[in-house]
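Researcher: Before we compare anything, I want clean individual predictions. No alignment, no superposition, just each chain on its own. First chain goes here; please echo the sequence and then give the structure tokens.
Model: Echoing the first chain and its structure:
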Amino acid sequence: MNLATLLHEAAEASPDSRALARGNRLVATYAGHADRSARLASALCNEFGLAAGDRVALAMNNDTAYSEIMFGAWHAGCAVVPMNARLHAREFAWILEDSGARLCFASEAIAKDLAGISEELPSLKHIITAGSERHNSLLDAAPAPLAGAGGDDLAWLFYTSGTTGRPKGAMLTHNNLRAMNKSYFASVDDIQPTDCIIHAAPMSHGSGLYMLPHVERGACQVVPESGGFDAGEIISLLEHWQGATIFMAPTMLARMVAAVEEADGDTGNLKSVIYGGAPMYLQDCLKSLEVLGPKLVQIYGQGEAPMTITVLNRAAHMETAHPRYHHRLASVGTAQAGVQVRIADENDADLPGGEIGEVLVRGDVVMAGYWRNAEATDAALGGGWLHTGDLGAFDEDGYLTLKDRSKDVIISGGTNIYPREVEEVLLRDGRVLECSVIGGPDPDWGEQVVAFIVVQEGATVTEKELDALCLEHIARFKRPKTYRFLGALPKNNYGKVLKTKLRQML
């Protein structure tokens, strides 16, 4: 069933209920949201000639228009390709070309960058600046009838970077995302029509996915005036919006807790903080509970199983008398409703509790596969289970503790950064003989990018030059924060770089 029906059913049930807000200002009721999305769908089909299954990309900062565009695309039978607004223009270009998106809505600054490389993108026919007169003129179209969409049709093409340095598109269907909603209500939290979600984290990722259960229950979506995360602004919004849920990376949560303490902020209207995307340190969790009270829920998921693998629910956060309370807080909880989770060895055989192996997941929420990448799909979904690449172990009560990330992903501020991607850029400089990138500890962001560099004999290269090279090819947040120059990289007998040795050097 088409996900756009969630919006239209909410509009029919409560047409005058608040649907979209910017700061404290109401932007649209549910009737208005549904109408604008239906009009946009009409323009997509009739003005731009898009058909069922075509992809509509979003290269946007958080905005109330985000929800209108996504539901408009679904209304037309199209799929959406949300992209991290912090990406480099070349990274946008690769995703746009790989996905075959014919139309892209972009924030003003991003639209200008994309215009400069549009000739390199033969499949992309139109770039619409979000909020522009051109965008608003599309809403003059007569509302389109709701397009039919099967449950197995593509709804959200989620690009998640891989160790090869090229992102892969996880194909999330209408059924996948409906299964995510079902698990949310059963395992994570309940939502009332009087509640809201404050989009402080990117709507291209977890926060945007969580717009779906809120729309299904007729709750309001609130976008901060800044369009992002500012702890003081969030505290101010909580004075106005009741029943507020916020999805946050652990680093965001730690910053908000510090701001609440400093300002003696009132968080009485904060209902839930759903956190995930990076490790939560035990002391930070305890401090958050001390300041905010029983409002924390941790989720563990991947782009391939959106937001839905395990959950450490509100009750587990508050069960202080349990003998393994601290152990549980350091875990990622138990399997969410609707999914099976197991730990397996390298042959996919089950491992007993306490033994470390790869986390495997099965359920209706698991992606249909990778876009136009059969080899990667077969590897990830072998045997009917999603192979997460994460290593973990279950305790006797079914609580999963993650031990390591086998793919060497660096998680900085809740955002994934893949070493190979950065290494390939650094090696573009001919003076760099070898390099290896790892994650180092960072007190604010959890991890930072650290690059170990070996230069050609007799050559010299500066950190400033390498920084400029990175800024030319990848997003700013992916560039190394620290460079270490070595005479040689530590390797084993097979020539493989020993990243464990590099971590010891830090």
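Researcher: Okay. Second chain, same rules.
Model: Second chain and its structure:
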Amino acid sequence: MKGMFILAAALVLVLVAAGCTGSGPGGATPAPGTPTVTDESVNETLRVFTIEAQRSLDTLDANVSSAAAALGQTGLVGPGAETVLLNLSRSGNYTTDGVTFDTNGEVRAVMPEDYQFAVGANIHGSANILAALNGSPALSQRINMVEGFRAVALSHPVRNATGGVEGGVSAVVRPERLLAAPALQALDNRSHTLSAVQIDGTIIFDTNVRIIGQSILNETQYGTATDLAALAKEIVATPSGMGYYRVNDTAVTVRGIAWQTVGLHGTEWRLVVNQER
């Protein structure tokens, strides 16, 4: 299935209407004033995608939180810590590895063993690491990992018996894998394209894997479809919304795009459903 914006560029779509209602994570999916069969299908797909994606994120968050609590007992290094990290790395097929880091932001332990080369690396410059060392969990943007690939990392502080921050733990996650199962559940044989986009415009999931990592804010890809470029800006700027477009100036068929927000600890992902046949 083609990616949402590759499809849009190829067909030179013309946006005919767009509206939005900001409700944030967990809010109701917006619907047009006069629902059509298309609207209902797009909205239902988005509803399920949103519920299941947020559930996956919440499960990830609970797993990292539990690991942080266990590491408060075992310490950041040693066999006990390695067992905790190995279990964290196996908690979902989307989690590649788990790491601990000290108050200087230096990696102290990594599991599985394939990533042992990362021990000693300084990751203090990452916003999620700084947040954890300041006592708050945080989910990073899609960034270059010391493990050698681009992914996101969810970090939690590790506290000692008196409540002081001893360091932290991070789970390194491939968002395209984390969102695959929610997307499959949401599609349910419908002819739609699903995407997930960071608020900086970076595509972190798409049913066309070739466009993951690209930005929907790159206006050159839309050619003369300037309204489509404006819609891309609306998606990253607004928690939820719905728009309509034609495949060309004379087409009778109007298709819909709707989006909603999921996230953790202030990091937001826009989930996007585009009607496609």
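Researcher: What stands out in the second chain?
Model: The first strand starts at residue 14 and ends at 20. Additionally, The helical segments are 4-11, 37-74, 79-89, 127-133, 175-178, 180-187, 226-237.
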